[in-house]
Amino acid sequence: MAANIIDGKAFAATVREKVAGHVARLKEEHGITPGLAVVLVGEDPASQVYVRSKGKQTVEVGMNSYEHKLDAATSEADLLAVVDQLNNDPNVHGILVQLPLPGHLNEDLIINSIAPEKDVDGFHISNVGLLGTGQKSMVPCTPLGCLMMLRDYHGSLSGMDAVVIGRSNIVGKPMAQLLLGDSCTVTIAHSRTKDLPEVVRRADIVVAAVGRPEMVPGDWIKEGATVIDVGINRIERDGKNKLVGDVDFASCAERAGAITPVPGGVGPMTIACLLANTVTACCRANGLAEPEGLTA
Ligand SMILES: Nc1nc(=O)c2c([nH]1)NC[C@@H]1CN(c3ccc(C(=O)N[C@@H](CCC(=O)O)C(=O)O)cc3)C=[N+]21
């Protein structure tokens, strides 16, 4: 059986269209333009690409984009001062500090200095706690994008067996919370999991988020399962640079019922959800109704 391909790129375009509609309404009816600030410390080339892409898409949906590019040697105090300034700027509704930060900066400290209601990454401890207790929060963009695609494909996820491979704070853990919130039976697997292949074979939904190129082979996938590939790994093959996921696409697609490609799957949804979160944050900041279909 050949799997259905879940087209994250096309889905992301529909999410951006919805976002653009809400932005237009906020401007017309309330005179408010949502604003997203992205802070980049240092010159990691991959990070620069993402930041540029975020800025471009932010403007395309009609929002204001503020970019703060800081020197790699920026001190913690100086970075905290930038975040503080953005926390207090009424034109900024969302703040994203691009990770990873250079080693001399304490990531937890910086992330937790962002005002939780402007934390469009959903990484602040307050948002983590709110999500874990089923309260209204900012939801991390990558897991939110995965959830949107799963809901769209399946309708209800209730009672499904979901296995999340990877236990990171930015994807694995919040993904598991969201799946639990939709009444899946959730397993979080990781590098120490005993008999990972057998654990994955039980799953109706597999979310791979480990950062290891093509580590999940097709024979781990239950016939008809849905495979969400979060990995974005740059590898060299046949003398060419290639982008591959955490699953072996060709063999997994033979057994899966549906699968997300890399590129063109989860990645574009991540950025679309960042824009969605910014609109959500802007509506909340102004006491307006939540945009429908853009939150968890
Ligand atoms: N605070 C913070 N929040 C983030 O959300 C965050 C971050 N830091 N640091 C870096 C990672 C990475 N990330 C990506 C988003 C979109 C694509 C994406 O759209 N990828 C395209 C391919 C792009 C290409 O060709 O490189 C795709 O999968 O189709 C990739 C990677 C967000 N990140």
UniProtKB/TrEMBL annotation:
Residues 140-284 form the Tetrahydrofolate dehydrogenase/cyclohydrolase NAD(P)-binding domain. GO terms for molecular function: methenyltetrahydrofolate cyclohydrolase activity; methylenetetrahydrofolate dehydrogenase (NADP+) activity. Its EC number is 1.5.1.5, 3.5.4.9. GO terms for cellular component: cytosol. NADP(+) binds at residues 166-168, 232. Pfam families: THF_DHG_CYH (PF00763), THF_DHG_CYH_C (PF02882). Catalyzes the oxidation of 5,10-methylenetetrahydrofolate to 5,10-methenyltetrahydrofolate and then the hydrolysis of 5,10-methenyltetrahydrofolate to 10-formyltetrahydrofolate. This is Bifunctional protein FolD. Gene3D superfamilies: Leucine Dehydrogenase, chain A, domain 1, NAD(P)-binding Rossmann-like Domain. It comes from the Bacteria. Homodimer. It comes from Cognatishimia maritima. Residues 6-121 form the Tetrahydrofolate dehydrogenase/cyclohydrolase catalytic domain. Pathway: One-carbon metabolism; tetrahydrofolate interconversion. It catalyses: (6R)-5,10-methylene-5,6,7,8-tetrahydrofolate + NADP(+) = (6R)-5,10-methenyltetrahydrofolate + NADPH; (6R)-5,10-methenyltetrahydrofolate + H2O = (6R)-10-formyltetrahydrofolate + H(+). Belongs to the tetrahydrofolate dehydrogenase/cyclohydrolase family. InterPro entries: Aminoacid_DH-like_N_sf (IPR046346), NAD(P)-bd_dom_sf (IPR036291), THF_DH/CycHdrlase (IPR000672), THF_DH/CycHdrlase_cat_dom (IPR020630), THF_DH/CycHdrlase_CS (IPR020867), THF_DH/CycHdrlase_NAD-bd_dom (IPR020631). GO terms for biological process: L-histidine biosynthetic process; methionine biosynthetic process; purine nucleotide biosynthetic process; tetrahydrofolate interconversion. HAMAP family: THF_DHG_CYH. Keywords: Amino-acid biosynthesis, Histidine biosynthesis, Hydrolase, Methionine biosynthesis, Multifunctional enzyme, NADP, One-carbon metabolism, Oxidoreductase, Purine biosynthesis. The lineage of its organism: Bacteria, Pseudomonadati, Pseudomonadota, Alphaproteobacteria, Rhodobacterales.
